[in-house]
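## Example pair
The file below holds two records. Each record gives the amino-acid sequence first, followed by its structure token line.
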Amino acid sequence: MKYKDGVLMTLTVTKWGGAKKLEPQDLGLKADEVPEFMRLGKKLLIPKEEREAFVQTENNARNALERASFPFPVGGARFVPNKVLMKILQELEAYKRVYMDLAASFRDRYHLIREDMLAKYPEHRDKLEPFYPPVQLLGKRFSFEWVVFVIEDASYQAKNGEDVAAAYEKFKASLETQFDKFLSDVVIDLRFQVQETCLKIAERVKAGEIINAHSIGAVHRMIDKFKTLNFIGDQTIESKLEELRGQLNGGRSAEDFKDETARQALREAAEAVARQAAEIGDISKITGEYKRRIQL
């Protein structure tokens, strides 16, 4: 079986941490003078804002990948549906450029950053200076890469012997079990996001709060995201979401939802979707139909 509706992706980002573990002697203590309930921190070799720039860019990239994918139960990979693959690749390319530009800037300013830190703490210079690597080595400390690969059954040749054949069959069965759970988790995750957004909009109406452009936009974004990531084909929820979208379309704006009739119609539609999304009794049927489709 080959799963053609998406690929697996891993993102690997490395950086020089700009810190070293704090040792007891750095504080004028012996090792046995540090109580067991205490944990020593780190010696910072660069200003925290320098490191935070790299951390923030990496976090932004990982968040972008997570928003467009699902956690896969093998190797810490993310399953990216084909519909969003090119979009996430473009986003990762943009984040890589930012990250590597930060790395180049850091290398260019490294000697200044180093000297500023050492000058700022002259009494600790002898404890800090040995931990600064040569600038020539910094280039190898920064990287931003991803790997994309497809999911296929393990295969073997008869000439490899019966033991190998049995092992491959075991691998295949294990992957099948994990993939079944993954499919169920995808349906549950998407339905939870739908339920959460719909309950929020219903609660706003119930509480008499204003339905503004931001609220309407959040519902549209949720519906669009569901349709994009719904590679399994949860048509039950998708059809309900189209009914909900019908309450928002027709040129309706936030101003239109000051009318009580429109507000209650929106609330009823949102609650209906939320109730349906909370149901999980049909998940096995949905994932089973999907597996039959991809096996054709």
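Second record, same layout:
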Amino acid sequence: MPRFDVFYRMGRFTAKVFLPTFGSLEVVGLENVPKEGPLLVVCNHQSDADPPVLIGAINRPLWFMAKRTLFKGPFLSFFFKKVHVFPVDRDGRDVEALHWAQVVLGNKRALVIFPEGTRSPGALCRGQDGLAYLALRTGAPIVPVAITGTEGIKHMLCMPFHFQKLRVVIGECYNLEPAKRINRALLESVTTQVMRSIAELLPPSYRGVYATSGESMSGAEQSN
């Protein structure tokens, strides 16, 4: 983390104080997060509260990407950039954002990706292949993370006093097999692999389209 990263440090302090005080926050598997080196943190996305929860749960600085429409006006643009958030177009063709992500990982930082590309409260929807491309291009290790409880936080203003039971489960770190050529079939295969690694950390009712036979498929229609 930059030496004078005041805004991010304040955000982390606030998350660590408020999240477990006005509600509960359980973190499982923190030892699975490498203390240094490039890292892709891949996580399900239930609400806008997910990034602050991750900041409070994971003990190393995190970088994020968020839809460009959130960067409204000079104040919000300044704030988001100070807390390690980069604007991205949601059409999946943002070359500038992809370059920024590669630079972040090249600087041995931890980048958070929500592979679903949008909020999907209560159940996983299908992952997008941008994460797979980034992982294959950079070779960065992957840590899957599953969040539950944030679907009950309906607005960011409710974040400090959320009164929810939040749970963050962090899976084992793994690397993808090196690929000589990246094609559509490989991207789809890696995306499915990554999404299933997240689903395995979630309760069955949250697994959505990645539920196995016999498990609840609640919310699966969101992907159709």
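Notes on the second record: Confidence is low (pLDDT under 50) at residues 218-224. Residues 6-21 form the longest helix (16 residues).
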